[in-house]
Amino acid sequence: MDNLYLLMIIALAFLAIADLVVGVSNDAVNFLNSAIGSKAISFKTIMIVASLGIAIGAIFSSGMMEVARKGIFHPGEFMFAEIMVIFMAVMITDILLLDFFNTVGMPTSTTVSIVFELLGASVAMSFIKIASSGGDYIDIYNYINTSKATEIIMGILLSVVIAFSVGALVQYVSRILLSFDFRKKAKVFGALFGGIALTAITYFILIKGLKGATFVSDDVIVYIQNNTSTIIIGSLVLWTLLSYIISVVLKYDVYKLIIIVGTFALALAFAGNDLVNFIGVPIAAWQSFEAWQASGIPANEFSMTVLAEKVPTPTILLFVAGMVMVLTLWFSKKARYVTQTEINLSREGESKERFQPNFLSRGIVRSAMMLSAVTTALMPKALQEKIDAKFKKPVIALSKDKTFEMPAFDMVRASVNLMVAGVLISLATSYKLPLSTTYVTFMVAMGSSLADRAWGAESAVYRVAGVLNVIGGWFFTAIIAFVSAAVIVALINIHVPSMVAILLLIAILLLVRNYISHNKKSKEIRAEDSLRKAESSSIQGVIEESADNISNVAKRSNKIYTHIIDGLAKQDLELLKKNKKGVGKLSDEIDELRDHIFYFIKNLDEASVGASNLYINILGYLQDMAQSLEYLNKISHKHIHNNHKKLKYNQIKELKEIDLELQKLLSATKAAFETRSFERIGVIFASKQELLDMVSQKIEKQIARTRTEESSPKNTTLYFTFLLETKDFINATMNLLELYYNEHDSTVTPAKLEVQ
User: Fold this and answer.
1) In this predicted model, what pLDDT tens digit does every residue of 675-687 receive, in sequence order?
2) Which of 175, 209, 434, 574 would you call most buried, defined as having the most Cβ atoms within 10 angstroms of its Cβ?
3) Domain enclosing residue 490, as ranges
């Protein structure tokens, strides 16, 4: 049995490394977003600053490990064998839960996940102990630290409301004082803002970042706590003077300094305080194993009172953990995917919206608009105009470079995000309130976005829906963490050796599956046949650039149409379901190109208006083609799904004849556009009437069959609808070819936008 527990310790060590990887991928969002979103400093500099913060914070984080040892349950009530089952269940649950959230790109709280996993696992083990001893289930209070669980739940609710409200208020005041033209303000304003922000961040480092660090003595902590006011006032004066000198004498942007120091501070606090979420449980298990081995007492009789004592964590383990976190930060693609979610939700202006609006987000936006209208009506007009002037955004000429590479938000908002998050986390720590770092940083960013008027009429419902999705995910984390850990404890308790092996194998398989799935999704985003935005400023330039799009649409349409007919012929629901994803992806890409029209037209001068007309018409015909394919797939799937009579042999044969002709048309179209042989379009276009006549003949044959032999109304309706929609698809395709044929001029060199 001794070997079993040694193997469990080894397994927990590997799980700890894996948990560090998925944990950092999730929590990188906390300290990277402000710097990345504002583009104040280069990405390499951001990563170096964050890496230093993580490395230093990890090495001095030993004092925070007690949470996993005694913060949720009373360790003296459990035996070593029971504690090992609890810890194993917690780690398996944690790694799978966090990896799931990372894969879907949603930030969640590692603090809440580990706390509720410990709570769920210890509650399950407590019930098992009570049931086996024939005790009363009310005795659960002897095993569980219920007050801590209550604090965590209150912390969730408080962090959501307070962080959002304070973030919105501070950003609103900051914007009114500094406006969007903050660089044109007197240097004293920037210096004062820098002094306040850097003082807040300094306070954050002293109170939150150094709390629990082994190299800081208790006397120093007590001194800081007793002289907080003096430290704050002194820091404010010092940082304000330094900010003024830096901006006036050294000519360095003080806002960049705030973002650098703030990023370092949050990374330091993250590693120093959240490291327990990833390795606290394995270290507690290892220390329990050492104590049990030294005792010589059987595993099911050795009480874990040792966990109630304060035992420092070896520095070498903290160093290794810090290095794993730093490497993950640099190489994890999932970390950047999670980070992108928050940046897009707080982005200034329009972006590709990931979340779909729902009745709740629409209701909230509608209520907010009504409240805004009432407030505006009550406010004096002169005051309203002054406030509006402060929120007037500078006009930036849109070009390829500036449209898509502009910061998500400016440095004032980035500084506010870092400053407010730091202060709130510091205050919560000083009052012993367990606010989650993830919740605070996310909600501050959302509040500052709202106050900064980043959520306009065209994006508000999507952004609010996104925020609601993320908040819902937080509560989902708590519930699933509790239930999953409890279930895994119950399963392991059936037969420890075999169930641990099975659950570890399942965990590995799920992690590999998620990794493959995420890689596949990333490759789809970068797929060669995905559609590209036009950037040219002339008709011939648009023709040249969009040729690849037409070639790709022809190739994919060919495949989709053939699959629809094959699905109908074989009554294959799975093929049609898969086909639905393909046509849906095509439609989404065309919609994205249409969303780009505004920026495309903005890039043109008056002499290039013809290019915009051509581009709009091209997208219109592409959308018509995609809609026809979408409708054909939909009616075919519905017919089979409802178990209606399958199409007759003659009908399938006729559809395959049309399919073969369309294959020739679309293959020729693909080849012509792929090779830029636009002169061949005329030959392809000449087959238009022949194709349309062919479809008309099929319609006439079906009319004759219906009058004499057809007996299925559903069958007849499907066939007629299919043929008519196919005619629409052919017309859209031919109209597109005709457009290119008429507009292309081989004697003109395509013009491009100049890179500005």
Assistant:
1) 877 777 878 877 8
2) 209
3) 1-376+412-518
